[in-house]
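User: My collaborator sent over this chain with a note saying "see what the structure looks like." That's all I know about it. Can you take a look?
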Amino acid sequence: MVSVRALKWLVAVMGVLILAGTVTLVAVIVQRLGGGGAAVTTAGLGQPAGTRIAGLAAAGDHLAIWVERPDGQGLVVLFDPRRGRVAGEIRPALRGAAE
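Assistant: Without extra context I'll predict from the sequence alone. Here is the result:
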């Protein structure tokens, strides 16, 4: 005949197994629904040291990043996040410079 002490130990072990299985099941469901996460990529904008990002906006499938250089010049850097590289730059013309 099984003692009460052994029965209590068996119930405790089964409770821990049920808890571990539930946590594993929830973790797998969250991972599959979440897409598993995106790969992290580091990319530079090719600007000199001291340049700061002053603004950011979506521009179609690119990012338009307004940067201000240490020399006071501002420009827009078009960044392609799919390829992880700079697609181009837009430099605003100063008023009166083209006249």
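A starting point for your reply to your collaborator: The mean pLDDT is 85.
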